[in-house]
Amino acid sequence: MYILGISGSPRKGGNTDILLDKALEGAKSKGAETEKIILNNLKMVPCQECEKVKDDGTCKIEDDFQALYVKIMKADALILATPIFFGSLSAQAKIMIDRFQCLWRYKYILKNRIPLPAGKPDSPPGGEKRPGALILVEASKRESFLENARSIVKNLFATIEVDYAKELFCTGLEGKWDVLKHQDFLEKASRLGEGLK
């Protein structure tokens, strides 16, 4: 089983990264193959709302999104971890999500099934989906911020045939390593990863 972890944080080694690492360690302890991608290290432009687009569900802009797209569609399970910025996802996470607009059009406008890699049947509406998880890190404790971010990720997961199966919301984490003071958050992250296997 291949589990892909995606970090939307620009802060390397901070709370979001630590929690994602714990989740991936949990998955690995159950025998999963894991990979972590840090969006801030990729060269991706925002969606350009192109007038002429491909009809195969892929984006025509050539940058690091192309390889990320393949990894996301190949994954048996997905974990997205991001801090809350201005009541929503980080810009890095939102850029990635917006670039799936072409796939959204392919699925919902052109009414096509999403092609999954070899060994995974194309998933019809209501069919079996790959499990996905969301980890959110917030300095404050605003439930509305978490709800906003959750709704965006649920839309992404629905588009890419991922079941929104697990979530971990960690609030009150302002400093870079504050999560290290919260053993409960770390343990929950590890269990989240174990549960995706």
What does this structure look like?
It contains 6 helices and 5 strands; from the N terminus they run βαβαβααβαβα. It is an alpha/beta fold. It has a single domain, classed as Rossmann fold (3-Layer(aba) Sandwich). Strand 4, helix 5 and strand 5 form a beta-alpha-beta unit. The protein is globular and about 50 Å long. Residues 121-127 have low confidence and may be disordered.
What is the percentage of strand-forming residues?
Answer: 15-25%
Q: How many strands, which pairing sense, and closed or not: the largest β-sheet?
A: 5 strands, parallel
Computed Rg: 16 Å
CATH class reads: Alpha Beta
Class by SSE composition: alpha/beta
How many H/I helices?
6
Envelope shape:
globular
Name the helicity range: 25-40%
CATH topology: Rossmann fold
CATH architecture, by name, is 3-Layer(aba) Sandwich
pLDDT average, as an integer? 92
Oligomer: single chain
How far from one another are the termini?
7 Å
Q: What is the tally of beta strands?
A: 5
Stretches where pLDDT falls below 50 for ≥5 residues?
Answer: 121-127
Biggest β-sheet: strands ordered side by side in the sheet: 2-1-3-4-5
Number of domains: 1
CATH superfamily: Flavodoxin domain
Helix and strand element order: EHEHEHHEHEH
